[in-house]
Structures
1.
Amino acid sequence: MLESRNVSVFYGRHRALENVSASISKGEIVVMLGANGAGKSTFLRAIAGQTQKADGGTVLMDGNDITRRPPHEIVETGVALVPEDRGIFADLTVQENLFLGAHPARARALEAQNMQRVLELFPRLKERPKQLVRTMSGGERQMVAIGRAMMSAPSILLLDEPSLGLAPVLCTELFRTLRRIKESGVGIFLVEQNAKQSLAIADRGYLLDNGHIVGADSAAALAKDEKVKAAYLGE
Ligand code: ATP
């Protein structure tokens, strides 16, 4: 289980997160919903060791304190982040990007097996291993980004707005793939503005507003909640 306890992050004097406690277990999908600027990306970066420093609180992975560990060490514990800008190398091929994801020691021995699994999840990548990523569509780049993270053999995958900029049909395909990844035992923590589709695949959810958790419940309950409907589902 990956868990944040009372995590706070400041940018200078601006408080982006205050006392955020949340958790995700292997084999579940958890979504964090929040408006622009609520602090969703900051939260994922804080967990992955990518904010300058967490100004308070603790992050635990399987009970071990990873709060002050550098990002490459956090990856070795089984936590992989796909950032909002997707963090892939546009001038490298699909295959090269995927192999870069296999760099962590935990993944090296299983490289061939993980590659096979990623290509099963994303058949479109299997068809074009040599294509330069900069020539790919937004949806295909997102597949490369998630595929690369999966090559590090994560037990918890952190996704920052994976559906951003994708056409509706690709969103549906993406969320279907996330469900398959979950079924393989990986925990997926995603932050999203696409509340409808993310709540439909999630087990649980958190609501983040102005750096604070203002709600937490099962995804089914959140999808029915009047305040959630008004704020995030446009109903
Ligand atoms: P979005 O959905 O627009 O990506 P978000 O919920 O992910 O928003 P964050 O990107 O985490 O929100 O930003 C939270 C707040 O912190 C915002 O007010 C943002 O302007 C501020 N912020 C984020 N990164 C920095 C930074 N590096 N320096 C200063 N302020 C920052």
Note: DSSP finds eleven helices and ten strands in the chain.
2.
Amino acid sequence: MSTLRTIQHLIDGRLHEGGSRFADVFDPARGQPVARVALADAATVSEAIASAHRALPGWKATPPLKRARVMSRLKTLLEDNAARICGLVTLEHGKVLADSMGELQRGIENVEYASYAPELLKGEHSRNVGPDIDAWSEHQALGVTAGITPFNFPVMVPLWMWPMAVACGNTFILKPSERDPSSALLVAELALEAGLPPGVLNVVHGDKEAVDVLLTDPRVKAVSFVGSTPVAEAIYATGCRNGKRVQALGGAKNHAVVMPDADIGNAVSALMGAAYGSCGERCMAVPLVVAVGEQTADAIIAGLTAEIAKMKVGPGTAEKCDMGPLVTKAHFDKVRGYVDAGVEEGATLVVDGRGLKVAGHEEGYFLGPCLFDHVKPAMRIYREEIFGPVLGVVRVQTLAEAMALIDAHEYGNGTCIFTRDGEAARHFTDHIEVGMVGVNVPLPVPVAYHSFGGWKRSLFGDLHAYGPDAVRFYTRRKAITQRWPSAGVREGAVFSFPSSR
Ligand code: NAD
């Protein structure tokens, strides 16, 4: 019998274990399990769907302003409980506390945006489109909806999804990452405290077994997914085949172009955070720098090397740490393997973080920052998503060459350009084949009132996450044409197609 705390499902407003399988959840800074999470079987997920289905009619009929008020109360509760929530994020994910706070704040902004739902749900109305005829279109809730989220933003990505889904009148089933599930569960409990009726938001933990039920049960009308590209692609295909609306956001390999005229000092500072913040475990991280010109590349390498030497790596709870551990032992081994592969493939390893040991945390999954120079497009460290603290510099001679590289890459999530040249920046933003672009901004993650989404194999589906696209994703349009003939007006049958001629 395990003595570890068990992270339970939240179904119909109650916590329970469901099923018989469990997985350990680790503190990556110590390499020790700190809890075990229940893994839902098909019957447990079906129970959650039934609860969401039962809650739907009452919630859908609740006036949008009342639904929005729950979001406003939740925002306050999230702010009041920030230390607890972020403590759980840092414990199970490993990122430093300041980074967990930043993640939570971005999530809260999505809750804030969802509290504007009554305004966002207003339709369009046209009077007198014909004799005594008015027409309007409105957004109606889809029904039971679901979200499947990744480990790297355990609190923010769920908040991209369910607040807007429920504010639009849907009910929701969240399946957080089984690697760090506690913070999403705590937020769901706070939503109950904020007044969300039981069943409107259910949380089931689990793996493929749980996800497969969400993808095939006909009561689920739409699925949002964020995670790796192979899983995103499979989820998109299975969900669509089962008649659901699906948006599936996948992996990334974001390039930062540094032009010869850039402010190199600022570019280096920006690249440090973008490459090594959250140990590189961000889908908007910058793992590749494309330096235009040899002098630019030399200056960037020198600047990064000097800054890396000042970095403090340690447990996320420690004061003034810049970077914590990787999330799991398996991920640590994978990322380390990429560093080995880069060396074997002939890239120059300028900074080698493989030998790092953190005193008192010898079992933790710590990898120091790594920096490669002379990375070539054929190398695995160029092509594949590493998702760790590994930054590679590619040397090119022109902006056109840099843009051709980015356009040819499989992923198109984010990119940025560092320059003082407005013409180059405008050309870049106009033509680059990437969904989110920064100019002197390394992590161009859209704010909550713009939508988030990549191009190419970074997104499967049409609508982006959160912001205005979330209202479109979680609702369907209905167009109504209504006639109230004036008293005494009588018309004969008309056989021509109705028009305004
Ligand atoms: P993952 O694909 O392993 O898991 C994501 C979710 O899918 C988890 O809830 C997991 O339990 C579930 N899952 C895993 N395998 C599954 C399967 N075979 N069938 C059904 N469900 C399955 O991703 P991860 O390792 O948790 O997260 C890291 C990945 O997410 C990276 O590739 C990163 O780029 C990506 N990501 C993308 C974005 C974005 O907005 N595009 C944001 C964050 C993370």
Note: The pocket of nicotinamide-adenine-dinucleotide is lined by residues 148-153, 157, 175, 177-178, 207-208, 211, 226-228, 231, 249-252, 283, 385, 387, 413, 454, 458 (CB under 6 Å).
